[in-house]
């Protein structure tokens, strides 16, 4: 889609003249630093370097557009950041584990080591992010979704935020599985920041500047965030499709795939180079049997698991909404969360760590595992609860170790884990630290699926006369489906299904995993309750229409006429210099509407602000007073809205047409105009009403 | 997005009154068949049955919307059709093979058996489809893409077409690997027909009728077509995203996934029930080694393969465009293809079959294999050309049999296959039969990849001192990547990458396959040449804007004002019955624009045709003559276009807003209107210009 203003500008003579003039002044501006600033040192070498760089730009530009280098750089950079983060977190976790092991024998010291380490980390990251950049807390996906819908929020894309979020996230993740938070959401947010920065860089380098590149880069960044976090390109692209508010433009599809593939490839290459893996393979590679992954009848069990996950997700979302409401209304919480963020984070982390202390309740919930180890153990393809019938494969019983270390049956252990982690997870979501909420839900779903799988194996084992053929049932498959279904239901998306497959490399379970995710989604979406991210958006009063729709379904069909701001400044066709001067002084819009006369108010078109300034300059030099339409070109308007159009329609048209200003007319008469900042105000007003 | 007309209708009193009246008449219409037609037999049982059906509808409607049953039914039906087709084709192919084996010893009879069987099938299917429904020939994807862009083409969705295409396709596929055509495209087309039929059924059953459901069903149908053809749901959805002209609406995403999963699940369950497979698994399940699927350095070879496939695709597309042009300009071909379709098809099939006769050139190109066997053999993970080093795995050398049956080395065999199949494939594309062109390209790509893989193995084998560690290279992986890359490059899409993974269930090769497909696409798209389907669209002069754009890049930026049709009939506010009567007689639009007066032409809004008819009825009964605005409600217009908007923008707004009529105004004055039929005319005119 071509930019309307460019097209209309190049068609009319006046417009093209102006553009040429602008280009000339721009060109002279480009040359000036070398020629006109004699005080700058090393003019000769600088000129040579600049020449070389221009040559390089030409060479690069000959292969493909400059934006493609930007996409590749985004993927590679994000993979590097993700790998660096993993490395840092692993080191910090190992240090904690080493200290804890060294204190073996002294329970009190072990308790302090177990609890104070994550508490301190959380307190530090919380204070740090609060003081450096308060926008860096939370997952960031609600904000990214809002930005993808076209609303500009520059403070969420600053480099300070990037720095704070990156360091804060390492600390949060290093607090380990006691705090139990993830990294997907923040990585998507980080990716948006890097993408925004790269797109600015690209548009600096490119000759022809296009302002829409930033929006394109954000869409790509959403895909890259997921892809570089797990090395999963396809689910990254699907996530990008899902995260869009209403329409996914087909022209974004190839850049998304390209950048996500670059990210995933680099991420996996890093793990090869670091010696973690022998070749490029899935992050949580499993060894499910491929000859008979599951019996056809198990499809019914997978469907049941999907419904179960849907029900659990409703419960979890309700708790989450309740605690969001509670922290906003309870005076103690309000005080803690506004002024004493560090203290609050420390306290919550201490509480969570105390509960998971391995000599206390932690022994029943495998608390010694890191999040990664938890997931690996849950995806294990061996049966834990029916050991008599497959004793031969128990030559390496390591993954079971933690789940049965306390001596209680594995079912009870899993059930206890699920029960405790539910409230712990809801509580952890209130922590004012940079953190993702996807991975914990994913692991929780895996535990839920595993429990069902183990129960099924147990039931079939006990009645073995009828179930002789079922001995090869794989509880890991249920864990995989459960993980995808629960995380899909909580976020109201389907990409977790593919993510589960890409994470494990198990394509054999694709259909049951998809089925479970679809059913869980169907249950979670029934009743039009907000998803996890919708609830966060509503709670933060973000101007994101699809989320607001969940809270008030009638909202998007509010007529634009009801929410339009004050009537814009307008000029009549025959305006003289005084009227123009007045409008230039009072209005800040770049496009000023021109009407037939102030009486009829029939909209004729618009003039650009720069042209008005030129008109004023002309009128100062010339003695004969001229009218506006004699000097300036009145550009024809693009699409016109009516006041009866809904807010949703206005937003869709802004997104699709890519226009900067939409005029609203009724019966030919101008009644208002809609720009992106205006739309942001409208949506913020609507959000405040809820 | 809500339908504009409904919203505006329900807001104004006049509109809602009308609607109520319509609803009442509808309700009475629903009841009437039982109450007012005393001549119908068995009134009592019919009433009971109807009561039960209404009850059932209520029960079903309580669970979820009626359209979801439609999506499920679409998936299941398409899987059934696809399975039935496979079954029929297998029977016919087996019969041919049986006859050929029985004639062993008599080369002449074998030759006739080998050549006449496919010739007759092609001749029959060609004549059959020409006589019953000429729209059923070809792949159907260009037409589906056009329909997805909003253009209505009812003759492509008729039940006759469904029937013809289904039977014709079975015959084409039964002609086997000599004619070498596939079934994906036609299955997508069949799916659209079934989807259209189901959406009509759904809107009959539903209480509240919405006309946009048909468009939604078409998007879903595109995904289901691919999903039910191969049991590959995710690539079906990606295909659906790619096949859209400019924007993929997010609300289609869940239905697409749901229906595609239903289709894939049913398709695989059918193969379990029929005894083909023990459980639900990939169609072309492979046994690639999972511990070390490929060495990290092989990534470079995969990238090279991608570029190679891109180059070959350019060559193939050039040949295809040439033959499309040739068949349209050469008088002999024109005559054959217009009047003697059966003869032409028979002749071409005979030629192709003669070349592939196993006692002639066929022995060097494994012509005894069916398309399915070809693909399975090419995806084999064992090395063919370096037998000395892995003799142990050659206990079952069956897949090699055909490729080396003539005694020549496997490289030469593969190279000969590639050389011959290129022109044969291009020739086969001219056959006027229902056929898909995707699968042959996929297999061709697999052969290309296999050739590269075998060459690499051979080179490394000969210099074994340096390549000792490379013995476990898997040429099947190259075949997989080549298949995805070539088919992706030819169609300018990326979904074949995921299709290749879903077909084989080999997630271990996901990243190299994606990389190869991306590079092949980049090479194929450079130079803005049309893709395979674009070339077909252009050749058929279909009103599909993205294809036309490939032929003439300036086309979408033609201003709407230049291509608008005649000025529409309009009414002035104060129109009397005569003027209204005149407009009702001359105009066929459903929405008649109302202007201030014929002099000023300021657009006020529109009235519906039904309201005008009512106005006329009123004016007949009443004595006092009234003006239009006193009786009818003038509905406010929705989005207005300017004549300077481009065709592309007008089309995008039509798609996004979902409006039936867009008015074009300049400075408040009406200059034209754009409806879907009008847009179709505009695009057809543009296509004719090329």
TrEMBL record, chains A, B:
| 4Fe-4S found in the keyword field | no
One Pfam family of this protein, by short name? Answer: Voltage_CLC
The residue ranges flagged as biased composition, category Polar residues, are 1-18
Would you tell me the protein name for this molecule?
Chloride channel K
Its membrane topology, per UniProt? Multi-pass membrane protein
User: Where in the cell is the protein located?
Assistant: Membrane
Region annotation (Disordered) maps to: 1-34
Protein species of origin: Seriola dumerili
- Would you tell me the Gene Ontology cellular component terms? chloride channel complex; plasma membrane
Which keywords does this chain's UniProt record carry?
CBS domain, Chloride, Chloride channel, Ion channel, Ion transport, Membrane, Repeat, Transmembrane, Transmembrane helix, Transport
Entry's Gene3D superfamilies?
Answer: CBS-domain (3.10.580.10), Clc chloride channel (1.10.3080.10)
Instruction: Give GO terms: molecular function aspect only.
Output: voltage-gated chloride channel activity
What superkingdom does the record give? Answer: Eukaryota
